[in-house]
Specification:
By secondary structure, the chain is α/β, with parallel strands linked by helices. Helices cover 37% and strands 21% of the residues.
Amino acid sequence: MKNFIVLSDKRTGSSFLMEALSSHKNIKCYDEMFLSKITKTGKRRNQYLYAYMKKKYKYNISQYLDWLYDTKPKKSVGFRIVYPQDKKWKVLDTIIKKNIPVIHLIRENLLKMVLSKKTKGLFEVKEQYFNPDEIIADIKNHENKQKEYFNRLKKYDNVLNLKYEDIIGRTEGEKGETKKFGAFNLKSDMITYIPMKPSKKICEFLEEEPMELYSNVTKKNKDDPWLYIENKEEIKETLKKKGYSRFIE
């Protein structure tokens, strides 16, 4: 078993991945432990945030990680950190120094990622107008962030690179009680699986028994996003001119 982090940009399916990892009996997952603001109780998912522990106990990041990963019975323990949080706290530097495994999750289709961010994960029934220049600027911004973290991790041996597009598998069950969960829905009687091949790869990376991982978190939008874009041709033409034709398919 190995302790780990899930590193990603926003809107890459990290919420889904964390819930799926939690389906393994020997894996314990926390959410985002490096939030900038301390909540009223100073807690998140029954654990203290780093900001709280730093203020109360003067923990540095290394001490905090040692405390966070100390579980009984022993399990593979992980938490999620998004790029902006690493920018603030410089967590990845300590992670690498301590040789902690990193699951780096990216999303290849940055157009869908940008649209998900702009619509908060939920497309309206009617078509919407999107500014082409803003779309391109957002795509470039996310593309640059992904490249930056790939470069930081390329000489680090203890990393598993995953693609969002590879981990969203089949969904089983009927629609039930729904709770909002970021860009996803949490449905008590629906299960979305990570296909066996990436599930096995993840489990082996964490030195855990291979199994098909699953989550009750399901996507809010399964339709083609182009159905909801009013100025389709304008967006497509701009993407072609800027070298992003691959997002049109």
